[in-house]
Design goal:
The structure holds 2 protein chains of 2 kinds.
Chain A lengths: L21 H24 L9 H23 L7 E3 L6 E3 H18 L2 E11 L2 E12 L8 H19 L6 E10 L7
Parallel strand pairs in A: 4-5
Antiparallel strand pairs in A: 1-2, 3-4
Chain B lengths: L1 H6 L2 H9 L3 H22 L6 H15 L9 H20 L22 H16 L2 H12 L4 H7 L4 H18 L6
Helix pairs in contact in B: 2-3, 3-4, 3-5, 4-5, 5-8, 7-9, 8-9
Classes of the chains: A alpha+beta, B mainly alpha.
Chain lengths: ~190, ~180
């Protein structure tokens, strides 16, 4: 498809969502129309169409991205977060909220997977150094019929959270809540 | 869980990354780095420095995430960080000039795969885009190629929606005039 010599069509015009007076709008519309074919060409220039990219470009970009990812990962490993300490039932022993969130996420991974779910996030709320709330975000995996309801599975996972809390911080009164945020259906391979 | 991470929305991943979850942050890097690298390459004149700009933007994001209040989308915030890095780099290249007076050409020449009859037009287009000052160039790409709303572009460029609207209109007018000979 050639751009030079190609007729301008309305599909090139983007709805800009801009609001202005009628005179300004007319001027704006004329300018937008005049530049619509340039915007379309810019999108081609950006290489958004796979057909416009050659193999060398892809290889260069792919290699640059892999390297970027590795370097970023390595650099952030030397920039750890500072956790907030949570008091445990054992005097003198504390656990950071970051570590506890990790422990819970890890501990819940298997029971969640057993009920076709995954842990999206574990949010902890503290008052001073006391854990007061644990909020578990769940996502359902797959669309197969479930053995239990989401309610029952969520309840079972909340019980798992309470069990993990007993072994990590000891008896506590933290409120444990769970919410099903989303359901994802993994793509099945074709061919 | 890796598959599940990929399916999580930016906000959830960012909240996990706030608490130091490097896997969640890696998922954000994997998701946003390709487009961000494209954006930087399209708006910064020295290709060899683009990877570093993207890298520094992500490191800045990691460092600043604990204070990120989710008043804008993570993507918008990330592009704002990258835009700040681009501006810093442009200022280092031309410390005496303002951003509006930096007509440095960005290397966006059409590749060998593009058809010969397009070459003259696309070369002229890339030259004109490269000559635009950074705010106008960034606005053009973010709006016309990435389709960002004006409000988001304003956040990215640390300016107002009105300024973005003006930049966009002037950019359209300028391109339409300078490339008029190629108009079909």
């Amino acid at each position: 498809m050639s751009h030079t010599g190609q007729l301008y069509t309305a599909e090139y015009v983007r709805d800009t969502g801009e609001h202005m007076s009628r005179a300004a709008t007319d001027d704006h519309d004329a300018t937008a129309e005049a530049a619509a074919w340039i915007a379309h060409a810019t999108r081609r220039l950006a290489g958004l169409s796979e057909a416009d990219r050659n193999e060398t470009d892809w290889a260069d970009t792919s290699s640059a991205l892999s390297q970027l990812r590795a370097v970023i990962s390595q650099r952030i490993s030397s920039l750890p977060r500072r956790g907030k300490p949570i008091r445990t039932a054992t005097p003198g022993v504390r656990i950071s909220h970051i570590a506890l969130a990790k422990v819970l996420t890890e501990a819940l991974a298997e029971p969640a997977a057993a009920v076709s779910a995954a842990i999206a996030d574990v949010e902890l709320t503290l008052e001073a150094d006391v854990l007061t709330k644990v909020h578990v975000h769940l996502i359902g995996i797959g669309a197969d019929p479930r053995e239990h309801t989401y309610l029952q599975d969520g309840d079972a996972l909340r019980a798992d959270v309470a069990r993990v809390l007993r072994t990590t911080v000891g008896e506590n009164t933290a409120a444990v809540t769970a919410v099903w945020d989303d359901v994802t259906v993994p793509e099945t391979p074709t061919g | 869980m890796a598959d599940a991470l990929i399916s999580l929305p930016d906000e959830t991943l960012a909240r996990r990354a706030q608490r130091g979850d490097s896997q969640a942050f890696d998922a954000l890097v994997t998701r946003h780095a390709p487009a961000l690298l494209n954006f930087v390459r399209q708006t910064y004149p020295e290709r060899s420095e683009c990877d570093d700009i993207v890298q520094e933007a992500f490191i800045a994001a990691w460092k600043a995430l604990p204070g990120f209040a989710f008043r804008s989308q993570f993507r918008t915030w990330l592009y704002a960080l990258a835009s700040r890095k681009i501006i810093d780099a442009l200022r280092r290249r031309r410390p005496q000039s303002g951003l509006d007076a930096v007509p440095e050409a960005v290397d966006l020449r059409p590749g060998p795969g593009q058809r010969a009859e397009d070459a003259a037009f696309l070369t002229a287009l890339s030259t004109e885009l490269g000559r635009m000052p950074y705010p106008a160039r960034a606005t053009w790409w973010l709006r016309e190629v990435y389709g960002l709303p004006l409000a988001e572009i304003a956040v990215v460029l640390h300016t107002t929606e009105g300024s973005v609207r003006g930049l966009l209109q002037r950019g359209r007018k300028r391109l339409a005039e300078t490339l008029a000979e190629f108009r079909p």
